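Limitations

Structures in this collection are predictions, not experimental determinations, and the ligand pose is part of the prediction. Treat each record accordingly. The example that follows, with SN-glycerol-1-phosphate as the small molecule, is included so readers can see exactly what is and is not provided: the inputs are given verbatim, and the output is the predicted complex.
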Amino acid sequence: MIGRVEKYLLNKIKKDGAIHLTLIDPEKVSLKSASRIAHEAESSKTAAIMIGGSTFVSTSHLDNTIKAIKKTVGIPVILFPNNVTAISKHADAIWFMSLLNSLDPYFIVGAQVLGAPLVKKFGLEAIPLGYIVVGQGATVGIIGRASPIPYDKPELAAAHALAAQYLGMRFVYLEAGSGAKQPVPNETIRIVKDLVSVPLIVGGGIRSGEQVKEKVNAGADIIVTGNVVEEFEAKDKVEELVKQVKWYRRAMKRPKRR
Ligand code: 1GP
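Predicted complex:
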């Protein structure tokens, strides 16, 4: 069943052409800066806040971070978990994700089996997501025991994405890894987007408005940025990134030349 947060994301993609989400890693920020970043990102029109990182963070710090963020923003807060310890009852929804190209069944379905009853108990909205690690894989590739899909094999990324769709996952995420030197190539995005019809999320190593424009033009429906927003003034940076999503929207609406 499609819940409130998922409907909100889908409507926003439909209306705006593509959207931007701000990822906050609770391990890297204090409560004060988490709530400041979220507030500034919201005022710069990011569509939702994602909470997660690749390594362990104490559950109480995770809970407190989300509570601090929820006090300052009205947009949805969505969990982006790396394990069962990253589930908090204070969020609005959870990307219920499977790392499709992990070599370890724990990250494909094991953690999900352990986490599902907790998601139910907390009343969290679960949004099914096929998660695919590409390129160098970065920390998430190591922790998730992934066999990252090389950038010169875009057709393999597309086959994984299509399998996710056929398995009933309603979003696909192409992940280059947090802080990746090279974000997901535009050509990979284009090839994946041509094959699948579910919304496509792209993240990892995206740092500039220009890159956002390229990724959205290639077919990304959702752009996720984390590092760059934590490093710079969140307001200015998110404004720069969201502006490019809007640029695309305007370009889409421009009447075609005959
Ligand atoms: C990581 O895709 C996200 O899981 C975002 O990556 O921190 O490099 O923006 P960055």
